Amino acid sequence: MTLPMSATPGSDGLLALVLVHGFPLDNEMWRPQVAALSGVARLVAVDLPGFGGTAPAAFTVDSAADAVAARLDAEGVNGRVVVGGLSMGGYVAMAFARRHPDRLAGLILADTRAEADDEAGKKARDEMIALAREKGAAGVVEKMMPRLLGEATREGRPAVADEVRRIAGRQPTEAVVFALEALRDRPDAGPGLGNVAVPTLVLVGEHDTLTPLTTAEAIGARVYGSEVVTIPGAGHLSNLENPEAFNAAVLAFLAEVKPGNTPVAS
Ligand code: MLT
User: Fold this and answer.
1) What is the CA(121)–ligand 1 centre distance, in A?
2) How far apart are CA 4 and CA 243, in angstroms?
3) C-alpha of residue 195 to centroid of ligand 1, in Å
4) 159: left (phi > 0), else alpha (psi -120 to 50), else beta?
5) Which mutation among 211, 215, 239, 241 tests ligand 1's pocket best, with the greatest number of atoms within 8 A of CB?
6) Where would I find the beta strands (DSSP E) of the chain?
């Protein structure tokens, strides 16, 4: 299933919440959020280039952020929006904040980091690209699985792992390779975070080892007035592993973002 671009079409006056997926998934990873939050926000769950059945194309986190803005234009969402992203989606959300600050009402950064890849990180991306070319998205997600999901999820909730395999497994190799290049080459988002002037929520799975609490706190330290919330029992894919806690944190945050700042034209 690929979710429609706008999960609550025509919901006049509702704050728009744009959600950007992690790697190597697509917008369906937000299914628990779309189900729970569609009544309180106009959900816009986007697919990055090549994911979720869209056409593979080379991209950068900056061009992906511009594409999100263009999709909002196409959807007729002209007011300020809350942009939320998990991991790779967080890199794109930070790029959106840098490049389109006038369109931003709030920022949700889940299980992500501000820093660019260091040399070892870039080398690991190149190795992952080689793995993708050999074994496709399924091989990549298998390699990543121990770091994508927390141990409690992997051992106690195999359905979550199955869902992650199913979503990742359908992504084309070309899209996975383009995304790995975008991840490898992304800029340091740290300095730009000092300019973020909207309410910001930083979420992190309690057992996230890919982007642990220290990286969440480093983001929190750079964004004035931001709040860091830990999602209990979850690993890196905190929105899928503990949707109840994730959704509760997002709901509380959305209630803080002033509707008056966020007119939605539809
Ligand atoms: C993701 O979940 O999107 C990736 O782990 C991001 C990354 O590897 O930097």
Assistant:
1) 11
2) 20
3) 24
4) alpha
5) 211
6) 16-20, 42-46, 81-86, 104-110, 200-205, 227-231
Separation CA 187–CA 9 (nearest Å): 34
Instruction: Specify the long-range contacts of residues 135-142, CB closer than 8 Å, at least 24 apart.
Output: 136/169, 136/173, 136/176, 137/24, 137/168, 137/169, 137/170, 137/171, 137/172, 137/173, 137/175, 137/176, 138/165, 138/168, 138/169, 140/24, 140/168, 140/176, 141/24, 141/165, 141/168, 141/169
Instruction: Assess whether pLDDT exceeds 70 at residue 261.
Output: no
For the segment 118-157, what is each residue's pLDDT rounded down to a tens digit?
A: 999 999 999 999 999 999 999 999 999 999 999 999 999 9
**Euclidean distance between CA atoms 88 and 68, whole angstroms:** 14
Q: Fill in the DSSP letter of residue 230.
A: E
Which structure tokens are listed for 190?
């740290």
pTM: 0.93
How does 174-188 read in b/e, with b if 16+ C-beta sit within 10 Å?
bbbbbbbbbbbebbe
Which pLDDT band holds residue 4 (cuts at 50, 70, 90)?
very low
> How far does residue 88's CA lie from ligand 1's centre (Å)?
5
